[in-house]
Write a structure and sequence with these properties.
By secondary structure, this protein is of the alpha/beta class. Helix content is 41%, strand content 18%. It has four domains: 156 residues, Rossmann fold (3-Layer(aba) Sandwich), CATH 3.40.50.11040; 167 residues, Rossmann fold (3-Layer(aba) Sandwich), CATH 3.40.50.300; 225 residues, Gcn5-related N-acetyltransferase (GNAT) (Aminopeptidase, 3-Layer(aba) Sandwich); 89 residues, no CATH class. The radius of gyration is 29 Å and the shape is globular.
């Protein structure tokens, strides 16, 4: 660090004021870190606080001491707002999500002031780690970012100053006619209006970093469409209504005569209305345009179903976001769009709206710091020689979390893989990854670079009274999903007494998928746990999809529970899979599996009646209502006489049930079936719904028509895989 200036000639207040003036001329944001005693930091912040009006300032802290301070836990409520001064008081605790959300609300010329303990002491203070009484690796990472960033101003008690070395350059005035504030935003609005106006429905995908006016562009386009086409019907979908605040505000500003109610705006016989994904899919109202904001935060199966229902739609998502990630979205959803909507359009917004950045201005200092501190732009670059990478030439390693802090490049690569492996990744996931107790990280590495990674959490191990309370639903200790679910949901009374490893995430670099790396990592991980002989079982809980189950089944993790309702976030039922590692674990597994098998038939007739057919077939317990037995010669004769003759369904039902169950459980055959055929065969033959219900669900004219359609569908199934 440079030598401190003479305290007599240095004024901390004057230094901050001068920095903010430079940032104002450049229309960029400034970051100041004040490290020292809490009282010293707050005394430094008070003049700044008083110099800003109430609407432009925000003081965030873990433990608010008055009405002028806001809890960091409420940072999500700041979406769509704009501030000129943000004060983060980190003395009482750090919340990564709050930093990610609130920093995006700061406008050009604004200042973010962080109040922290002395940097050398901060990782070890009692409030640094929210998960355990131990030094915080995440705070250590923050300190490294602060000390290495020349663009921020660092103040240390009592009067030491490290000035900012960011070259703030004066910004020219913006010259944009109309409501748009950048050429990028204007291009997005034009594309959205064209999407809503043309006959051909080609989905539009808009991506950007935060602060580029993406949501406002959706609002401007919605206003223009409502104005130009009376009776136009628009729905907007997002992870939650608050995420659409900027969109609705922009539309309302441009249509002052519109009637505005909660999450709905009406104009000229048309409307703009927020609808959650599950409501859209359940009700399927007629729409002229569907807008999906923060699409990366919604699961791909939900997006696929929305695309099937509403081909005229626009997906908008943040590339480096605090909620979801556009990188994973683009990699995973691009092939789906290519398949279901060839010719879809892509548009990326580069120019910020709330501040300046670019060739003339250079990067915004605050945005760059937040990217590095929260790893929002962490990339998992494929290693050289990807064509040579196989499980046999990758090393299986357990990663030390403390060592990751000392190796920023490796940490970025690792977190980049985890981001791509999950549709929703927030800064809190990085904080949890580094600080939460009981976590273990395993990876496959090629030439020292991670190409596949898994996170394990250790759960359970409660005493008998606590385990009993969990079983009866009186206790729900956080961070023990497997132990709780096996006891409370699966009905194994003493399950929480035993120790489990839960595989929380597992991911493979997209360029290296379908080479067996994920399976190899999972198998070696299980072998490691078996060799250690310290746990009773290993398991996982995830959104059930027919395409995911084989991966776990191959490793010996068997379903023991299926959630009775669809998750709001994924639109799927959750499934819990388990593999015993000890005799006690075998007892828990056996009891949970037996209950799963015993309840399967009644659940399929009740809350799981609408389960996706292929998934139901793969979950079907052996010995339940539809045994997966081989077809006999007599069975084949019965089936052939039904599909090619006139024999009645009832006298051929049993062989048909065996056939359809086998086909649905075999991926290569199930994928050949027409989706409508698959659903029809499942509902009548496997689920045994009656003829009137079948006619109603498939809009058939009567039982004769239904029998004819069933025979035709069975014939095609028999020809494809019989």
């Amino acid at each position: 660090m440079p030598s401190p200036p003479d305290p007599a000639s240095a004024s901390l207040d004057a230094a901050i004021e001068a920095l903010q003036q430079q940032a104002g001329r450049a229309d960029q944001r400034a970051l100041v870190v004040a490290a020292g005693d809490p009282a010293w930091g707050r005394a430094l912040a008070e003049p700044l606080w008083r110099s800003h009006d109430a609407r432009s300032r925000l003081w965030l802290t873990h433990s608010p001491e008055g009405p002028e301070q806001t809890a960091m836990s409420k940072a999500d409520q700041l979406l769509g707002q704009q501030r000129r001064l943000l004060i983060f008081d980190f003395h009482a605790g750090v919340e990564a999500d709050a930093l990610g959300v609130a920093s995006g609300t700061l406008a050009g010329g604004g200042l973010l002031l962080m109040l922290t303990p002395a940097l050398a002491e901060w990782p070890a203070v009692s409030t640094a780690n929210p998960y355990a009484a131990a030094p915080s690796r995440f705070v250590h990472h923050l300190v490294n970012c602060i000390e290495a960033d020349p663009a921020l101003m660092l103040l240390q008690e009592p009067d030491w100053i490290r000035t900012s070395h960011h070259p703030y350059r004066a910004a020219a005035p913006r010259q944009m006619p109309g409501p748009c504030r950048s050429a990028d935003q204007q291009r997005a609005v034009t594309a959205l209006i064209a999407l809503g106006s043309r006959r051909e429905a080609r989905p539009l995908v808009i991506t950007s970093d935060r602060g580029r006016g993406k949501s406002a562009a959706l609002g401007i386009a919605a206003a223009r469409l409502l104005e130009q086409q009376p009776g136009f019907r628009i729905a907007v979908c997002a992870p939650r209504p608050q995420a659409c605040a900027a969109l609705f505000e922009r539309t309302a500003e441009l249509l002052p005569r519109a009637e505005s109610r909660r999450n709905r705006l009406q104009y000229a016989g048309g409307f703009l209305q927020f609808m959650a994904a599950d409501a859209l899919l359940g009700q399927q109202p007629p729409l002229d345009l569907l807008l999906i904001d923060e699409a990366a935060a919604l699961p791909l199966p939900v997006l696929e179903r929305l695309l099937s229902c509403y081909p005229r739609l626009a997906f908008a998502t943040t590339v480096h976001g605090y909620e979801g990630t556009g990188r994973g979205f683009a990699l995973r959803f691009g092939p789906t769009l290519d398949s279901l909507a060839p010719g879809w359009e892509a548009l990326h917004l580069n120019e910020p709206i709330r501040w300046r950045a670019g060739d003339a201005q250079g990067p915004d200092p605050l945005e760059q710091f937040v990217f590095r501190a929260l790893l929002l732009d962490a990339e998992a670059a494929p290693p050289a020689g990807t064509d040579r990478i196989t499980p046999s030439n990758c090393a299986f390693v357990e990663l030390d979390r403390a060592a990751l802090i000392r190796s920023p490049t490796r940490l970025r690569q690792l977190f980049g893989l985890l981001v791509l492996a999950h549709y929703r990744t927030r800064p809190a996931d990085l904080q949890r990854l580094l600080d939460a107790p009981g976590l273990r990280l395993f990876a496959l590495e090629y030439d020292g670079q991670p190409v596949a990674v898994a996170i394990l959490g250790q759960e359970g191990g409660f005493d008998a009274p606590t385990a009993e309370a969990i079983y009866r639903g009186r206790r729900r200790p956080p961070g023990h999903l497997l132990a709780q679910s096996l006891a409370f949901h699966a009905g194994v009374p003493d399950a929480a007494r035993y120790c489990y490893a839960r595989i929380m995430r597992i991911g493979v670099h997209p360029a290296l998928q379908r080479r067996g790396l994920g399976s190899s990592l999972l198998q070696q991980l299980i072998a490691q746990l078996e060799a250690e002989a310290q746990l009773d079982a290993v398991g996982a809980s995830f959104s059930a999809g027919a395409e995911l189950l084989p991966f776990w089944l191959q490793a010996g993790l068997i379903p023991v529970r299926l959630g009775l309702t669809r998750e709001h976030t994924s639109g799927r039922h959750s499934v819990l899979v388990l593999k015993p590692l000890s005799s006690a674990g075998q007892t828990v597994f056996t009891r949970a599996r037996e209950r799963f098998e015993q309840h399967w038939a009644s659940l399929r007739a009740g809350p799981l009646r609408d389960l996706e057919p292929t998934l139901a077939a793969r979950l079907q317990p052996p010995g339940a209502s539809c045994p997966q037995q081989a077809l006999t010669d007599a069975d084949r004769e019965d089936i052939d006489s039904f599909v090619h003759g006139l024999r009645g369904y009832e006298v051929c039902a049993w062989p048909l049930e065996k056939l359809i169950t086998r086909l649905l459980a075999t991926p290569e055959y199930a994928e050949r079936l027409d989706p409508t055929d698959r659903q029809l065969l499942t509902r009548r033959i496997v689920d045994k719904c009656d003829w009137p219900t079948l006619c109603d669900e498939f809009k058939l004219k009567g039982q004769k028509h239904a029998r004819q359609r069933l025979r035709e569908a069975a014939r095609r199934a028999w020809q494809s895989g019989g």
